[in-house]
Amino acid sequence: MNYIPRPDEVRLILDTVLGTVPRLSALPAFAEFDQDLQAQVLDEAGRFVAEVVAPPNRGGDEIGCRFADGSVVTPPGFREAYRAFVDGGWPALSAAPEDGGQGLPAVLEAVLFEWLSAANHGLTMAPGLLHGAYECLKHHGSDELKQRYLSKIATGEWLATMCLTEAHAGSDLGQVRTRAAAQADGSFRVAGGKIFISGGEHDLTDNIVHLVLCRMPDAPAGPKGLSLVLVPKLLPDGSRNAVHCERIEEKMGLHGSSTCVMRFDDATGWLIGEPNRGLAAMFVMMNAARLHVALQGIGLLDAAWQKADAYAHERRQMRAPGPTPASRGSETADLVAEHPAIRRILDTQRAWIDGARVIAYRTAMQLDVARHDLDPKARERAQRWCALVTPVLKAACTQQAFHGASECLQVFGGHGYVREWGIEQVVRDSRVTMIYEGTNEIQAIDLLVRKVLADGGTGMSGLLIELRDELDAARDIDADVQRRLAQLRYLTTTVAMASQANASLPFEVADDYLRVVMLALLAWAWARIGRTAPDPARWSAPEAAFRRWVLPEFEMRLGIVKRACEAVVAPQVSA
């Protein structure tokens, strides 16, 4: 079965749980944004994804991309689907009107890319970096570069890549060796090689705009000496630049996406931003990409859940324990969905999908608040939310995508392990999301070491107080969430104190700390759903599963971090 978006469920979260339209329409940039427009965009996006993007997914996995003589041919149906994507204006959903965009809120783009990833992850990799490349160029590019490339990227007429990784330098970007030499005409000559470049070569667009992290001859060593250069496949006069794809990788999954080994042979490019300040420009792109990877995780988990739920309501196996199901009738076996072990799997994954959507969509809303709100304090709070929550979402949602998809495969039994049902593709495709755009371990370190501890936990404490103040302590569920938010605040202070005695401690417990944060955010999200969402019957099973099977991990992870801190502090006290 192909993935089917469900705009009605997303609208419930946006309209009822988060109050998207009143909050965003109060911003000058979205004064004309209303509920009807939001509903229309979501309905059209859902139809487009189901009818155009989802059908070539299986062929993309089975046939994959083909490489010959430096060129890449994408799977059957991909070019047509991408052309329809561009013609429909979907790449430009949140880009500024002056750049050829529609000027709509980022949250609608977030929903769109969640659905695109769920329906056809391989194809979605192609436009997946457009938003980040657009933001990077808009904020750091020269007027000349913006005039030449910005609208082409915004509309998806030309696709873009992010060229960071080298064979000897994965996450350690300070080891990048690709060189950039300044020329008399203001351009640069770029020489070196990059690996793992998604969409480095393909036949979806004529031109491909490569954003290349490189080093100038007299640059300082390490990450502080890196610059960012825009290197197009085709030069402004239409001639071919000295950019070559040497091969595409044979991967575990994502067969519909070309992952390329690229070579730059004194290719012509132009500097983005300031010399030796390339990481500052690149991180604009990477941060945008990390939220989209989190949304990939949510979408892929939803795709796995849809397949497993449909199968469980068709397949009959044995008699289920407990009361006789009404669906049994004259059958000698019950539906797989009626077995408690399977209900636990399905409801638990649904709990993750629904709760994570609340957090991710709020984060997308906060991006717009950070950009457009006239109140500087509101912008500051929004920026704090995005900085702290984005790495949490990226790590937690992608981890759950892989492990949750594997659980959904279990629903199929042996049928899940064969290609016919499509669930094994989701497991394979989802695995890479835990690695690219910064491994999940790096996300945890970024959260705890670079962001939480950098200000002694003040920013995280402020975010948790903000969430606390949104809840009504008089309600039992809300009081429980408030208790967990308070525990997390105290844990943050504890880690900050213990880290002064042992500098390696935060690196050791970063993964556990991130999980504590995500579980606290999920508890807040489910409290919001419980307070606001209509039709309690729709939400009762996943909410119960969250409280029974997901939330207990909070105490376990909390205990792990506390004991690690105590092990550091206790010797100091006794001494």
How many separate domains? Answer: 3
Q: What is the CA–CA distance across the termini?
A: 64 Å
The gross shape turns out to be globular
Tell me the CATH architecture of the largest domain.
Beta Barrel
Structural class: alpha+beta
Order of helices and strands: HHHHEEHHHHHEEEEEEEHHHHHHHHHH
The average pLDDT score comes to 95
Stretches with pLDDT under 50, minimum 5 residues: none
Describe the oligomeric state of these chains in a short phrase.
Answer: single chain
Indicate the CATH class of the largest domain. Mainly Beta
Q: In DSSP terms, counting alpha (H) and pi (I) runs of 4 or more, how many helices?
A: 19
User: What level of helicity do the residues show?
Assistant: 55-70%
Radius of gyration: 24 Å
CATH topology of the largest domain: Butyryl-CoA Dehydrogenase, subunit A, domain 2
Describe the structure.
The structure is a single chain. By secondary structure, the protein is an alpha+beta fold. The protein folds into three domains: 7-135, Butyryl-Coa Dehydrogenase, subunit A, domain 1; 140-276, Butyryl-CoA Dehydrogenase, subunit A, domain 2 (Beta Barrel), CATH 2.40.110.20; 439-575, no CATH class. It is built from 19 helices and nine strands. It has helices spanning 7-17, 20-25, 35-53, 57-63, 78-87, 106-119, 121-124, 130-140, 143-154, 278-312, 340-372, 376-411, 423-431, 440-452, 458-470, 476-501, 505-532, 536-550, 552-574, and strands at 66-68, 71-73, 159-163, 179-182, 188-198, 208-215, 226-232, 243-248, 259-272. The strands form two sheets. Strands 3, 4, 5, 6, 7, 8 and 9 form a seven-stranded mixed beta sheet that branches. It has a two-stranded antiparallel ribbon with strand order 1-2. Helix 11 crosses helix 18 (536-550). The longest helix has 36 residues, at 376-411. It is globular, with a radius of gyration of 24 Å.
